[in-house]
Amino acid sequence: MAPTFVDEIFEAFDRRGGDRYGEEITQLEHALQCAQLARADGAQDSLVAAALLHDYGHLFEGRSDAAEQRIDAHHEARGAALLKRWFGPEVTMPIALHVAAKRHLCAIEPGYEGSLSDASRLSLELQGGRFTPEQRRKFDSNPFAQDAIRLRRYDDTGKVPGASVPALETYRDLLSRLGQAAPKRSD
Ligand code: FE
Ligand code: FE
User: Coil, strand or helix: which one is 103?
Assistant: First the structure.
């Protein structure tokens, strides 16, 4: 059978999923933990997919340790752009906004910034820091802002070294279904 877009996604994880996420876990472990947290939270399938794929852009970076090299490679935009070939905005927009959601939460939630991991705090600085009131308003007006914030919570929590979670293959049907629902978007 001809390879599908899901095969293409899984191949990217095969190639680069073993890269370090920046803490004590790999990209693949982080993706699987975030997806599992979304499921446990009762998130709709599109948000489970977004959680699984939110750092897809990292799998296409030249180096796995961009933050430590003091580069902001805009992985959220890169991932969303790649995934738009197959998925609609209910998957790609929370992904595109997951860094913005961190900057938003740092601005509105006391204690949030202090709760971030060292790597997240370092990247926050590279990503532009806390949102200004104007940036917050703009973020809030996005219809996918709340999903992006939910995704952000999974992202912040899905970093447990050695946690046992379902394998990537268990998401094949979910991704196939969502992708088929939004074939080949070109915008
Ligand atoms: Fe990320
Ligand atoms: Fe992440």
Answer: helix
Rounded CA-CA distance 97/163 in Å is: 26
Residue 76: closest CA among 84, 88, 68? 84
Q: What pTM did the predictor assign? A: 0.92
Output the CA 61–ligand 2 centroid distance in Å. 14
Ligand showing the shortest atom-to-Cα distance for residue 159: 2
- B/e letters for 121-149, b = 16+ CB within 10 Å, e = fewer, are eebbeebeebbeeeebeebeebebbebbb
* 88-97 confidence digits (pLDDT tens): 999 999 999 9
Number of Cβ atoms within 10 Å of the Cβ of 111: 6
pLDDT tens-digit map of 10-31 = 999 999 999 998 768 999 999 9
Ligand nearest to the CA of 79: 1
CA 147–ligand 1 middle distance (angstroms): 15
